[in-house]
Amino acid sequence: MLPWIYKNLxxxxxxxxxxxxxxxxxxxxxxxxxxxxxxxxxxxxFNYNVGKAIIENENTLLLDEEIDLLLNFNGLSSNTFxxxxxKEIYYLDEENLWLDQIISNINTRYSENxxxxxxxxxxAYFGLIQACLTKRPFNLFHRKNLYLRTTDVERNFGNxxxxxxxxxxxxxxxxxxxxxxxxxxxxxxxxxNKHILEWSTNNYDLVYFDPPYLGNNGRSExxxxxxxxxxxxxxxxxxxxxxxxxxxSKNRKxxxxxxxxxxxxxxxxxxxxIMFEKFQDSILVFSYKKGGVPTIGQIQxxxxxxxxxxxxxxxxxxxxxxxxxxNAELNRxxxxxxx
Length: 339
Ligand SMILES: C[S@@+](CC[C@H](N)C(=O)[O-])C[C@H]1O[C@@H](n2cnc3c(N)ncnc32)[C@H](O)[C@@H]1O
Hints:
Blueprint: H1 2-9, E1 16-19, H2 26-33, E2 37-41, H3 45-56, H4 64-70, H5 81-85, H6 93-109, H7 115-134, H8 147-150, H9 160-163, H10 167-181, E3 190-192, E4 206-209, H11 225-235, H12 241-244, H13 268-278, E5 283-289, H14 296-304, E6 310-316, E7 332-338
Parallel strand pairs: 1-2, 1-4, 2-3, 4-5
Antiparallel strand pairs: 5-7, 6-7
């Protein structure tokens, strides 16, 4: 979708931009390539880490010899938290051991308090996060379902070959990808880790919103990002992970109090209005799909309270693992733009 987003945003006059729900960093990266002054934001710490690695970072790389050192576990006596807590939940025993070891190496070698080390650590975590995602069925952590990988059955979904690739190979591959993505433009870019409704400053020429999408039934198992990706959030909060976990749950998810979501059916319209009001002095660009809650028309009406001219652009898009309210053929991505 990035070429389409580019085509529609290029005519707008802006230099500074806040990507309020940065996620993978793909849209922030587009803005960075457009030579804009980008602030990447995401509520989740593991995503913030991605923003730090490829948006804020201008020139620090994780060198081959440094990758080798991170993968050298000789003489290491690491914590066994993942091995003990997640046995038979997401990964095999030897993979859980590998995870405990690599995290121990990353955290001992790189301190967040030193600028360059902080970027190297962010790249290492980028590699680790991507490796973890590719080895999971559906790329999610919402269920205890390691058996989907290990049961000897004929499959008509998923990618067992990738699930079974060793962590080390995947880690090396994704660290290289992150290194390749590090670019220096002549604009300062930044990554932040805040709840967007608690944002205090407002001095961006444009704010781009791509919040969690709520389907037309008003619920979705995957709308709460903490519930789907708690394991990755735990990886980057390793030392306090045990305080966050609901040990009664089968899949060792986070306790409910750590699963903030202001984009549920009852809250989403109010949250959108709060955001539009907060950033009303900026160009507003809101990304959503047709057939959701609220509807595109309702979101346009909220935007019209704060903006003189509101218009939409849309395109067809078909997701791989999502039926889009019943019929993927009808799915349309929409940009609602207020200037
Ligand atoms: C639809 S995704 C964004 C996808 C993104 N545009 C991309 O290209 O990858 C929504 C993101 O919003 C984040 N998020 C959810 N609630 C948030 C909040 N209150 N403040 C900031 N970010 C939030 C989630 O962690 C998730 O990464």
